[in-house]
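C-alpha cells for chain A. Residues wanted.
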C-alpha cells in the first residue's frame, strides 16, 4: 500500500475539514433535526419512544429539583426519599448544567446532549483512521448516517443514552491513549477513562480491555518503555482517584444485585431486548469490509497502524454477544457505522487504487458522496441499509399537561393514582408527576370489566427504578439494599388524586374509565381539578371517608 507523505498526513486541508463538518451536520439534520421537528425547545418531550428515555430524563430532573445527586428523587424510587444516588452520575450532572445554562427543560437538554455525542465520535473516529490513511477515512464518512438507520436509531430514541454518552468518552479516551506519548495526553486519558466509568461502566470495561491489548502490542513491537509505562500508570491512577467513591456504591447497587447477569456464557446471536445494528446491514459493502479487516490485520506492524486498532477492537467487542456479553455488546453496535467506516473505506480505497493508480482525495470524497445517496435513502439499493425518518413520542400534550399540573399544583407529599390506560405501560413517563404514584394493573381492570363491576380496590403496582436495589447508606462507605414489595391490592380512596383517561385505544376501556369517573363524581368529596380532551384529574378532598363504594355493578347498556 502506497504511503502518504508526512505533509499529507499532518495537514488537514480546508476542503477536508469542510467535508467532515458537512457529514456531521448532515447526520445531525437527519437524526436529531427530523426527529425533533427541527427545534431544540419543545412543549413536551418529542422523539421519546420508550420508558428508558423517561427513566433518564426524570433522574436528571430529580437532580435539578434537589440541586445534587446525593439521593435519588423519591418519585423515581417508589416514594422512598433515602435511596442513595446509585446510577452513573455524569450524564445527569451534564444535563442539569445544560438545562440551567440554556433554560431548556430537562427533557430537551438531555436529548440534545445525547444526539450531539455523534460530534466527537464521528470527528475522532475520522482522525484516528486518517492517522493511517486519509483516503480510507474520507470514504468511510459516507457510511456515517447509518447510525440513524434501522436498529442503530433505537439507541437514541429508546433511551440507551448512558451507553451512547459513555461511547463518546470511550472514543475520546481511545484517541488519548493512542497519543499518550504526547504532552498532556496522560491527563486527558485519565479524565476520559473516568468519565466513561462514571457514565456507563460497560463501555469502560471494553476500554480497559483495549488498553490491555494495546499495551501488549506495544510490548511486542518493543515500544513499551519505562516512560510509556509511567504514562499508562498515571492515567489509571487518575481514573481510580476520581471513580473510587462511586465504585463502592456501584458494587452494592449493581454488582451485588446483577453481577451474574453482566456476563453469561450463553451466545446471544440476536438481541431480544430491542433493535441494534448487524453486519448484514452493510449489504453489498460487506466484501469491502472483509478486505479492510484483512488489510488492517496485515498492516498491524506499520508505523501508524495503531490508528486502525480501535476499529478492529470495536468490531470484535461488538461481537462479544457470541461469548456472553449480550446487551453490553449490542449497545456498542449502535455506532458501528462510524467505528467500522474506516475499515470499509480502507477496503474500498485499496480496490479503487488498484483499478486507478492516480486516485486521490477528490476521488475519495466523490465516492463517499456516492455512498451517501443510498445510505441517506435518496435511492434505494437492495440489501443496503439506509436512514429511516422517525417522529412522534409515547407521550402527548394532554398527558404532559397533567404531569406538569400535578408537579406544580399539588403538595409534595400528595399520592397520585393512575387508573390503567395504555399510555402508562411505559411507566417511567409517570415519574414526571414528580409525586408518589401508583398504577392499576391491566389484569385487575380487565377482571373488573369482565365482572361488569367498578371496584375501588384494585391490584396496583408502584412503579420505580429498583434496578440498583433501592440502596441505603448504613455508614461511611457502607451501603445495603432494601426489601420492597409495595405492589399489592390497594384502595383507590387512600390517594389524594386520581387520574382517569377518558380516551384510550380501546373502546371498552374508554367506556369503563368514563363510568369509573362518573362514579367518583357522585361523591361530593371528589372534584375535578383538571380536565382536557383525553383525561381528568379528580381530587379526593377527604381521605377519611370512602370516595366510592367497594363495588358497583355496571348495568348492561
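Reply:
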Amino acid at each position: 500500500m502506497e504511503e502518504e507523505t508526512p505533509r499529507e498526513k499532518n495537514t488537514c486541508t480546508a476542503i477536508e475539514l469542510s467535508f467532515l463538518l458537512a457529514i456531521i451536520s448532515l447526520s445531525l439534520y437527519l437524526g436529531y433535526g427530523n426527529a425533533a421537528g427541527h427545534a431544540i425547545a419543545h412543549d413536551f418531550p418529542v422523539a421519546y419512544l420508550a420508558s428508558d428515555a423517561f427513566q433518564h430524563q426524570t433522574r436528571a430532573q430529580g437532580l435539578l429539583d434537589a440541586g445534587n445527586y446525593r439521593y435519588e428523587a423519591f418519585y423515581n424510587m417508589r416514594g422512598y426519599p433515602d435511596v442513595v444516588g446509585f446510577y452513573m452520575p455524569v450524564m445527569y450532572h451534564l444535563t442539569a448544567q445544560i438545562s440551567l445554562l440554556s433554560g431548556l427543560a430537562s427533557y430537551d437538554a438531555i436529548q440534545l446532549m445525547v444526539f450531539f455525542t455523534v460530534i466527537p465520535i464521528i470527528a475522532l473516529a475520522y482522525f484516528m483512521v486518517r492517522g493511517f490513511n486519509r483516503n480510507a477515512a474520507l470514504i468511510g464518512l459516507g457510511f456515517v448516517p447509518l447510525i440513524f438507520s434501522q436498529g442503530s436509531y433505537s439507541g437514541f430514541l429508546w433511551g440507551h443514552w448512558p451507553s451512547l454518552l459513555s461511547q463518546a468518552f470511550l472514543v475520546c479516551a481511545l484517541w488519548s491513549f493512542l497519543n499518550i506519548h504526547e504532552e498532556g495526553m496522560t491527563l486527558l486519558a485519565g479524565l476520559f477513562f473516568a468519565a466513561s466509568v462514571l457514565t456507563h461502566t460497560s463501555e469502560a470495561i471494553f476500554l480497559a480491555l483495549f488498553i490491555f491489548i494495546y499495551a501488549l502490542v506495544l510490548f511486542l513491537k518493543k515500544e513499551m518503555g519505562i516512560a510509556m509505562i509511567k504514562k499508562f500508570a498515571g492515567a489509571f491512577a487518575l481514573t481510580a482517584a476520581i471513580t473510587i467513591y462511586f465504585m463502592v456504591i456501584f458494587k452494592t447497587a449493581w454488582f451485588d444485585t446483577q453481577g451474574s447477569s453482566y456476563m453469561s456464557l450463553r451466545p446471544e446471536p440476536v438481541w431480544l431486548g430491542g433493535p441494534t445494528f448487524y453486519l448484514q446491514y452493510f449489504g453489498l459493502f460487506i466484501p469491502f469490509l472483509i478486505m479492510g479487516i484483512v488489510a488492517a490485520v496485515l498492516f498491524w506492524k506499520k508505523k501508524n497502524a495503531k490508528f486502525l486498532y480501535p476499529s478492529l477492537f470495536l468490531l470484535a467487542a461488538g461481537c462479544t454477544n457470541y461469548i456472553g456479553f449480550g446487551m453490553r455488546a449490542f449497545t456498542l453496535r449502535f455506532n458501528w457505522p462510524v467505528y467500522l467506516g474506516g475499515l470499509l473505506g480502507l477496503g474500498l480505497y485499496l480496490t479503487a487504487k488498484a483499478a486507478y493508480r492516480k486516485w486521490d482525495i477528490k476521488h475519495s470524497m466523490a465516492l463517499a458522496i456516492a455512498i451517501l445517496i443510498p445510505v441517506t435513502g435518496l435511492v434505494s439499493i437492495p440489501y443496503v441499509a439506509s436512514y429511516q425518518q422517525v417522529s412522534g413520542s409515547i407521550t402527548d400534550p394532554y398527558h404532559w399537561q397533567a404531569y406538569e399540573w400535578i408537579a406544580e399544583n399539588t403538595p409534595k407529599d400528595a399520592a397520585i393514582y393512575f387508573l390503567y390506560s395504555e399510555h402508562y405501560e411505559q411507566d417511567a413517563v409517570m415519574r414526571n408527576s414528580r409525586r408518589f404514584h401508583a398504577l392499576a394493573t391491566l389484569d385487575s381492570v380487565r377482571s373488573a370489566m369482565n365482572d361488569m363491576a367498578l371496584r375501588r380496590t384494585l391490584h396496583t403496582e408502584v412503579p420505580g427504578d429498583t434496578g440498583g436495589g433501592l440502596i441505603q447508606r448504613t455508614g461511611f462507605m457502607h451501603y445495603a439494599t432494601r426489601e420492597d414489595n409495595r405492589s399489592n391490592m390497594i384502595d383507590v380512596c387512600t390517594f389524594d388524586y386520581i387520574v382517569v383517561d377518558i380516551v384510550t385505544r380501546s373502546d371498552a376501556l374508554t367506556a369503563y374509565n368514563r363510568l369509573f369517573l362518573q362514579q367518583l363524581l357522585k361523591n361530593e368529596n371528589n372534584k375535578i381539578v383538571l380536565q382536557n380532551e383525553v383525561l381528568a384529574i379528580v381530587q379526593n378532598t377527604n381521605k377519611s371517608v370512602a370516595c366510592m363504594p367497594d363495588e358497583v355493578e355496571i348495568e348492561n347498556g
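The first strand starts at residue 415 and ends at 418. The longest helix spans residues 226-262.
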